[in-house]
Every structure is written in structure tokens, then in C-alpha cells.
Design brief:
- There is one protein chain.
- It is built from 2 helices and no strands.
- It is mostly helical and 114 residues long.
- The chain has a domain of 75 residues.
- The longest helix is centred in the N-terminal third of the chain and has 60 residues.
- The radius of gyration is 24 Å and the shape is elongated.
């Protein structure tokens, strides 16, 4: 039991050291995540659009038994595209309202009024 307490106390005391050491890498990590997300967004939109067109092709060329599932596929494709576009627009709106510059660092003004 004492060993567990000792390990817990040592980890708690070492935590600030590791977090301060990682502060310099946070900016690079955020930039890397932003680059990855910006490359993945068009791919996700394309997959949603392909899902809609897949349902459309199933509806046109399928028989009567596949029309119901094709309608569901098209509806879910449209819903997915709507949700993705809405979230993307909301994130851009909130980012511009908060002052996040998409091309660089956040635009932060002075915290103390002069």
C-alpha cells in the first residue's frame, strides 16, 4: 500500500515537469492536426456524395424490392452531407467570432485594457 502511495506522489510531483516540457511542442502538434483535418475533410465529403449517388444508381437501376433501401441510402447521404456542411460552417463561424486566423496563430489582443 505504501509503495502505491509513493508512486502516486512521485507521479504527481513529476507531472508539472512533463507538462512544461511539452508546451513547446503543442503548437507544432496543433498545426499538424490542422493539416491532417484539412486534407481529410474533402475526402469525407466525397464519401458522403458517393453514398448518395450509390443510392441514386440503386434506385434507378434496381428492382422494386431495392427501391426502399435505395431511398434510405439517398436520404442518409443527404443527411450526412447536410450535417458535415453545417458542422464545417459552424466551426468556421465560431473560429472567426473567437478570432482564430486560419492561416496562422490565433489573433489574441492584450488582456489588460490600457
Amino acid at each position: 500500500m505504501k509503495m502505491k502511495k509513493l508512486i502516486f506522489i512521485a507521479a504527481a510531483l513529476a507531472l508539472p515537469l512533463t507538462s512544461f516540457a511539452a508546451l513547446g511542442n503543442i503548437t507544432g502538434l496543433v498545426d499538424d492536426i490542422g493539416i491532417i483535418v484539412n486534407k481529410v475533410i474533402p475526402i469525407v465529403f466525397a464519401i458522403g456524395l458517393l453514398g448518395f449517388f450509390y443510392g441514386l444508381v440503386m434506385y434507378i437501376f434496381g428492382g422494386e424490392d431495392t427501391k426502399v433501401s435505395a431511398k434510405k441510402t439517398m436520404i442518409w447521404g443527404v443527411v450526412a452531407l447536410f450535417v458535415m456542411a453545417s458542422v464545417w460552417g459552424l466551426v468556421n463561424f465560431l473560429g472567426s467570432a473567437v478570432g482564430v486566423n486560419r492561416d496562422g496563430a490565433p489573433q489574441v489582443g492584450p488582456l489588460i485594457p490600457r
